[in-house]
Amino acid sequence: MTMALQQLAAPDSVLRYEVVNEHTALLTLNRPEARNAVSAELAHLMEKVVSATEVDQRVRAVVLSSSHPDVFCAGADLKEVHAGRGDQLFTEKNGFAGLVYAQRSKPWIAAVNGKALAGGCELVLACDMVVASARAEFGLPEVLRGLVAAAGGMYRLPRVLPPNIAMEMIATALPLGGERAYALGMVNRLVDSHRVLEEALLLADQIAENAPLAVRESLKVARTAFAQDESNLRSITREARSTVAASNDFKEGPLAFIEKRKPCWTGT
């Protein structure tokens, strides 16, 4: 772990980082006094962590959680916005909170056990999967304040929900509860509130059981499904298959099956 990441292990860091269960990076938003609102410090630390998880060969999945018992993230820190520092909540490379536009190859899981509103909801939408409880609330209340959800929320929400439901949420600013979000497909797994982080880590473990390169290449294709036509998707799929076919894991998977043993993935 680099010196920068060692500092993120400190209890008072606004973003805590640790590798758990050998292959999962656990990130914890840790500004409970501000309802985990995104500050400039948090945004720039997040960008560093995103880069670190990408190059760390141990990490096969990332879980994003909260230290607040009732709030995942309340969005942008409006005190910083009011003070004229709103631009500092965006990094040049990754956008809002140092995450929403990040180019990532590894799966990210949001563990939501409370309110994920405005930019907080956009952080969730930037992740690939969501584990939540019935206590969770997802919403884009920007129009209440004469603002717009400018960190991906306005176009990502209609991708994970029926478009008319997303339109209603955007136009009314009313939140969506965890149970309905699960019923509509926005949430992957709905569990009791005390099990949200546990279940998110379990999901990460289940991902880590698979060949990491194959997972990354498969997700690369899946993430482009809404942005590419059929012809381009076939081409991207062929590229993914070629990359995986040239790997050691491509040989290890069938061999482990034949030898009736657990595969030993290297990610290469």
Task: State the share of residues found in helices, binned by percent.
Answer: 40-55%
- Corresponding CATH superfamily of the largest domain: 2-enoyl-CoA Hydratase, Chain A, domain 1
Termini separation: 21 Å
* DSSP summary: helix tally: 11
SSE pattern: HEEHEEHEEEEHEEHHEHEHHHH
Low-pLDDT sequence parts: none
Q: Can you put this structure into words, describing what you see?
A:
It is built from eleven helices and twelve strands. It is 41% helix and 16% strand. It has helices at 3-7, 40-55, 78-82, 119-126, 153-160, 163-172, 178-183, 196-208, 212-223, 230-245, 248-258; strands spanning 15-20, 24-29, 61-66, 71-73, 90-91, 95-96, 108-112, 115-117, 129-132, 137-139, 176-177, 189-190. Helix 4 crosses helix 5, helix 5 runs antiparallel to helix 6 (163-172) and helix 9 (212-223) runs antiparallel to helix 10 (230-245). Strand 1 (15-20) and strand 2 (24-29) form a beta hairpin. It folds into two domains: 3-208, 2-enoyl-CoA Hydratase, Chain A, domain 1; 212-258. The longest helix has 16 residues, at 40-55. With 268 residues, the protein is an alpha/beta fold. The strands form three sheets. The chain has a six-stranded mixed sheet, sandwiched between helices. Strands 4-8-10-11 form a four-stranded mixed sheet. The protein has a two-stranded antiparallel sheet with strand order 5-6.
Short note summarizing the structure:
41% of the residues lie in helices and 16% in strands.
Comma- or semicolon-separated keywords:
268 residues, 4-stranded mixed beta sheet, 6-stranded mixed beta sheet, alpha/beta, globular, single chain, 2-enoyl-CoA Hydratase, Chain A, domain 1, 16% strand
